[in-house]
Design brief:
The protein has helices spanning about 15-25, 60-80, 95-105, 120-125, 150-165, 200-205, 205-210, 255-265, 265-270, 305-315, 360-375, and strands at about 5-10, 30-35, 50, 80-85, 85-90, 115, 135-140, 145, 165-170, 175, 180-185, 185-195, 215-225, 235-240, 275-280, 285-290, 295, 325-335, 340-345, 350-355. It is an alpha+beta fold. It folds into two domains: about 5-45 and about 150-210 and about 340-375, FAD/NAD(P)-binding domain; about 85-140 and about 215-335, 2-Layer Sandwich (D-Amino Acid Oxidase, Chain A, domain 2), CATH 3.30.9.10. Helix 1 links the parallel strand 1 (about 5-10) and strand 2 (about 30-35). GO terms for molecular function: oxidoreductase activity.
């Protein structure tokens, strides 16, 4: 087996896998290095939401749609579970409902297949949503649920068997002097290096990382036990707090009023960046979260109170048949305060792509397509 490749990819999380898929489909010999036995970072510690609705109108939303299109092709070809369930944003306050109306009528959103629903209509498509007090729902058919644990575990074998991608797990990349890739398991040769692992970027190019402006964000998340066989929640869910989180809502004129109210009545929710999302993978479990702690606030220890706050807010709008929490965990991802991601070329033949923040699952295949095109031309 050759140790000389056209392109080496660092990181077997979803961004690394997406780059490997595009590059190998272009006929390149690709090897992927992953320092663990399987990727275990942010790519497996999330909701599994391919979530275009969170992206602002324009190029980012278009990129998210393109990414979803590729996702569906890959998932179908690999035989991996996915659910085109769509998303449902719920409003229980008048100002939140007005934001949803403004969102739908905004010029940048008019071409989207959104639908405003009353409480009775919401109950028909989302049987576990609590409808007393519900003012309005916003349904979008685009959002797609995947199981991040299954995807990250099973895609490597699919890429290996169908496109000849080689995977070197339990292998850390220690340095790159083109074309030599120095690893914990000896030297490989690759004409180009694409780095998609945040921590390994810090190790490989520490000065660039230090000056990149990237910050780390910690999320606390949970899973409830599997629901009765065959019972599904319908669309993935979000509620009023989510309006403050995604930039797609930023232009709504009523949003500042929502923020002021929540800063007064729910100050700790704002302080810890809590907004509650719900998804259901193919296992039937319910994924719940999340919180956002940045920089110096990050600790290896979870704050139980934050989980309690998430569950308390969830109880306002959602009740599955079985709500016992089976798993709790935290994830950490890198994000840039002002840029949607970091794309850098620190040396000849080296491309770094990281810092996608909480949109990694959504943007991965679309962003990788753009970056791979540049790599192939260089």
């Amino acid at each position: 087996m050759t140790n000389h490749y056209d392109i080496a990819v660092v990181g077997a999380g979803i961004l690394g896998l997406a780059h490997a898929w595009h590059l190998a489909r272009a006929g390149k010999r690709v090897v992927v290095f992953e320092r663990h036995a399987r990727a275990q970072g942010a790519s497996v510690r999330n909701f599994g939401m391919v979530w275009p609705i969170g992206q602002p109108a324009g190029e980012h939303y278009a990129l998210a749609l393109r990414s979803r299109e590729i996702w569906l092709d890959v998932l179908s070809a690999a035989g991996l579970w996915h659910d085109r369930s769509g998303s449902l944003h719920l409003a229980y306050e008048d100002d939140e409902a007005e934001v949803l109306r403004e969102f739908v009528t905004d010029g940048g959103h008019r071409d989207r297949s959104y639908e405003l629903l009353g409480a009775d209509q919401v109950a028909q498509i989302a049987p576990w949503v609590k409808t007393p007090g519900l003012r309005l729902g916003l349904f979008s058919p685009v959002e797609t649920c995947v199981d991040p644990r299954q995807v990250v575990a099973d895609l490597p074998a699919f890429l290996r068997d169908t496109l000849g991608v080689r995977f070197e797990f339990d292998t850390s990349v220690l340095g790159y002097d083109r074309p030599t890739v120095r690893t914990s398991r000896g030297a490989f040769r690759a004409d180009q290096l694409v780095v998609c692992g945040g921590d390994e970027f810090q190790v490989l190019y520490p000065e660039l990382f230090a000056g990149s402006g990237l910050i780390k964000c910690k999320l606390q998340m949970m899973r409830a036990v599997a629901q009765p066989a065959g019972q599904r929640m319908g669309p993935m869910l979000a509620a009023g707090l989510t309006q403050l989180h995604y930039k797609s809502f930023a232009a709504c004129p009523t949003l500042p009023a929502v923020r002021r109210r929540m800063e007064t009545t729910m100050s700790d929710y704002i302080r810890y960046g809590i907004h509650v999302l719900v998804s259901q993978p193919g296992t039937g479990e319910i994924t719940i979260g999340d919180t956002h702690e940045y920089g110096d606030d990050i600790s290896i220890f979870n704050k139980e109170r934050l989980d309690e706050m998430v569950l308390s807010y969830l109880d306002r709008f959602f009740a599955a048949p079985r709500m016992a929490i089976n798993e709790r965990w935290f994830g950490i991802y890198a994000k840039h305060p002002s840029k949607p991601w970091l794309h850098a070329r620190p040396a000849d033949g080296v491309t770094i792509v990281t810092g996608v923040g909480g949109a990694g699952m959504t943007l991965s295949f679309g962003l990788a397509e753009k970056v791979a095109a540049e790599v192939l031309q260089s």
